[in-house]
Amino acid sequence: MSENKFKKELGLFQVIAMAAGGMIAAWMVEIKLWFELSGVGSSVALITCAILVLSLCLIYAELTGMLPYAGGANIWISNSFGWNSGWLCFWCVMLLYIMAMPTVSYGIASMLGYLFPVTFLQVKIIAAVILLVWFILTNFEIKFLARIQNVLFWSTLVISILASITFIGSEQWSINTLKPIFPKGFSGYSAAVGLLVMKFVGFDLIPQLSEETNFPRKRLVVAFIGSLFLTVLIYCLAVIGVGGIVSQQWVAETDVVDPRVADIIGKHWLGVVLVVMGTGTCLTTLSGFWLSASRTLYGAAKQRQFPIVFAKINKNGQPHIANILVGVTSVYFTVFAPETWVNYIYTIYGIAAGLVYLMVVLSFLKLRKKQPNWERPFYVKHANIVATVGVLFCIWILIASVMAMEVGAWLTLLGYAVIGIGFWLYARYKQKSEPDVWKPFIINPENTPINSK
């Protein structure tokens, strides 16, 4: 039987690629929503959002260095506010990762439609095959996945930047076409700042992989900042590149934006390259959220918040049982979930992300007082200011999301909450009926050794 531990095989640049790859999804399709929210001004909203997310990244960097365990926020919140609060965080985080899965099929759907006609059923079949292949890959050593992610992400980075520069340098691009920069004024801009946080959910993959890194913990902050910077760079250049060529109305009426813009400037070959690259980008997103979900389940199982079987690791250092559950839920939400589910993603994401991030910021402050002697390889300066920015940002995310929620989204969220309550009650029942197996356990440096790095 193999030792039940993760293998330390991930370097700094691999972690950056995996985290940024999780954030950079099929923007060529989703950019339509960005323009609907705030036109070309969505680039300013994305930069604002990234600056605010930076406060969260700094907090995450300190907490990850101090408690570098798979499970991330669940572990931190459990140490701060107890097992039950950690369980709530775990369930919210799982929602974030589960909801990312449909973006893969819908992103691929729109992009493949640029190359050849494809029915929605065919898209779902393709997505199911992709998920099956990815399930197989997730059970190999993580360094194998990291190599794939490296190639996909860095290729995406280079091609997307070159494409945006090509758009901006074309004869069809004009600064006048960018106007009005904020077609919906401050209300559209502020709503975009609150809702576009979804595009940066992915930096929290780093804590999930912290047990598998082979570089000093104090350098984790570089992974957070690096992945955030590269993500906002790609997004903003894309908005400015297409926004100087086509109108907001044109964006709203097209299917996949960047490749169609490439056709307008007479570079169909670039459109084909962008579609191929965009499909690969969807895979990086799938990989990032899949890895995060499986390790979230692993951490919850270690703390007896979920059946302990999900903490098992195979000979390749992968939580294979957790991968099975992630695979099943991925297939359901990608292949069988109703199409309306996708319409709710941004607002439900905001509710779940806002709540989790708020709990993390509060845990950051509490652990500073509760456990001042725990080693912090990276220490946030001006902690109160950073935390205040983080709290205000989280509150705004929640407000913007609630204001944009539809009835169907509320019902979806309620259904997920009911399922969660069932799992929580099951865990509490097991704690009484099988106390030896299900005794609550909170991972920290006092009971779980930390690698010297």
From TrEMBL:
It is a multi-pass membrane protein. It comes from the Bacteria. Gene3D superfamilies: Amino acid/polyamine transporter I. The chain crosses the membrane at residues 12-29, 41-61, 81-100, 120-139, 151-169, 189-209, 221-248, 268-293, 321-338, 344-365, 385-403, 409-427. One of its GO terms (molecular function) is transmembrane transporter activity. Keywords: Cell membrane, Membrane, Transmembrane, Transmembrane helix. One of its GO terms (cellular component) is plasma membrane. This is Amino acid permease. It is found in: Cell membrane. Pfam families: AA_permease_2. InterPro entries: AA/rel_permease1, APC_superfamily. Signal peptide: none annotated. PANTHER family: AMINO ACID TRANSPORTER-RELATED, MEMBRANE PROTEIN. Its main location: membrane.
